[in-house]
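Weekly sync, protein design subgroup
Attendees: M.S., D.O., the rotation student, P.L. (late)

Item 1: inverse folding check
M.S. brought a backbone from last month's batch and wanted to see whether the design step gives back something sensible before we order anything. D.O. pointed out we never logged the input encoding, so this time it goes straight into the notes. Structure tokens as presented (182 positions):
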């Protein structure tokens, strides 16, 4: 049993090592991503927001203010459009997720396993204790007995079970059954 414990300990240690390695990898990936985002932000700001140089005269200052207001308006419009697009996409995503959820609910497939089964075993599984017939077809072919054909004749005389049910249904059927002593 000590050998088994050593094996378990080794497996646990390996699992712990893998977990810490994965965490370390995740941390470095997050750090890289953060740095890349920061660089992207700096580049965007450098391109879209040139450094501000304040002009000397009142006239130039007013011009600058007008330009800044126009810029603010266009950026605001852009932001609004992006927000609307995002809301629309989010709604579509939610709808699709709901559809997916509904579909999953409707078609829950049971986990099926492939099973090798003889015809005999299959009939036994389906019919349970009622199954007495042997499915050795060759044997059945060789031994056709007179009494078997008699049994089949009796079965044919019984006829369609649906007719029997219909005849026995309703008040008329009950009366017949009562009279027949069933």
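Designed sequence read out in the meeting:
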């Amino acid at each position: 049993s000590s050998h088994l414990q050593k094996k378990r300990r080794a497996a646990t240690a390996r699992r712990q090592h893998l977990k810490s390695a994965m965490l370390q990898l995740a941390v470095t990936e997050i750090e890289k991503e953060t740095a890349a985002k920061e660089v992207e932000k700096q580049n965007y700001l450098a391109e879209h927001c040139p450094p501000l140089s304040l002009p000397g005269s009142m006239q130039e200052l007013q011009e600058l203010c007008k330009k800044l207001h126009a810029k603010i308006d266009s950026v605001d419009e852009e932001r609004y459009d992006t927000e609307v697009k995002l809301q629309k996409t989010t709604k579509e995503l939610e709808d699709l997720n709901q559809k997916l959820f509904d579909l999953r609910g409707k078609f829950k497939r049971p986990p099926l396993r492939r099973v090798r089964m003889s015809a005999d075993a299959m009939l036994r599984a389906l019919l349970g204790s009622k199954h007495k017939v042997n499915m050795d077809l060759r044997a059945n072919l060789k031994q056709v007995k007179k009494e078997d054909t008699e049994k089949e004749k009796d079965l044919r005389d019984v006829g369609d079970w649906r007719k029997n049910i219909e005849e026995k249904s309703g008040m008329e059927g009950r009366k017949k059954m009562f009279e027949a002593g069933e």
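Discussion: The longest helix spans residues 58-106. Residues 151 and 157 are 10 Å apart (CA to CA).
Action: P.L. to compare against the previous round before Friday.
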